[in-house]
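Risk register update: the risk of archive-format incompatibility is retired. Evidence:
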Amino acid sequence: MKPIEAVLVGAGSRGMMEFGTFALRYPQFVKFTAVADPDQWRREEFAAKHGIPAERCFADYRDLAKGPKAGEVLVNTTPDRMHYEVTEFAVANGYHVFQEKPIAGTIEECLALLKLARNTDRMIQIAHCLRFTSFYMEAMKVIESGFIGTPVMITYEENVSCSHMAHSYVRGAYGKRESASPMILAKSCHDLDILMWMAQGRKPKKVSSFGSLSFYKPENAPEGAPLRCTDGCPAELDCPFSAIRTYANGNGPKIGYAGGGQWQVSAETSKEKRIEVLQSSPYGRCVFHCGNDVVDHQVVNIEFEEGLTVGFTMNGFGAISPKGPMMEKFGGMISGGSGRTFTVFGTKGVLNAPGYGHIEYTDFLTTQTHRAQTGFPEGGHGGGDYGVFKNFLDAVRSGKKEVMRNSLEEAVMSHVVGFAAEESRLNGGKVIEIDEYISRF
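Archived output:
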């Protein structure tokens, strides 16, 4: 089988560590033949891993249009605010597009992307990878089988670990709404997509939301804490967010990306070099002095057609999950830890996922509880990253859009709910009518 030739735009953690690694492990499916990234080190590192010649390495993705078409597909793993422009460019230049989430930084661009997809024969798939994890696929088998009857209410939690919160949504690229997306989309558009899936075709009607930035603010900094952890903080030994411990000691917690957050900070490996980098890097800042403005906790209420209601809670205070024997003991991440948990209440029974990695479901008649442990297959997001990418490649190879298991229409609707939730939050929890909200745009 000849591999599909692909172009990578954005050689960051997702492009480099997930989809790039997939190509190296499964060369029969895909081969990267060109790369575009403004960062010289990442561009050259990716090229070296994949044997890409210098003439097919670009600092500006627009330079891809100056020569022969470099492949059949373009993998768009750029920052949020660049997603739409890069995908629009790719379609105009004849590429099928595999694009990272969120779809775009504004609702206008989300709707524009849907229109673009409808007006082209090019395939566009959003990397909503959770649908491809054994955890969610097993849960959906139970729901779709009718075992618990008709779902009437869903409670759902996204517990972002405190270390991931500090790395990505305080110090990192997603700490400000103006340069990224609201956190409800930057982090949780995965979860909104899953809720659309669980709703089984019911359309969302109303949304309301509450939430704020409560903790990661200057007034909560330890007494005497400097602007940077490298400037001699008196609270370093007692602070779980110490940049020196997390990034420079080599034994800090993994942050929720393949390879951990240390890779994002610097390619340097020695403690001395890393501390030197942290003295100027955004990741060396005190978490209470970052000027971030995204929420650290948020509640979203959704009413779907046929009376289905959803209570979705996202917070940045999840515990770092147990590893090794502890993970095996619980069959997954413990409730309240880092990860996702949910309960679906139906007319005939209840489906409960008390920890990411195993589910339980009970029917009302027999009161018998069934349990299933789904494990954590190879690849990021419990195997979902590899699954969704492989599904896209299968669709391109077949030439049939219907092979893609997650539709762009449903992905866009999940984003509409996210943007509506953010508008509600910023307006004191005002109820947003989804049809009216869409009509504005």
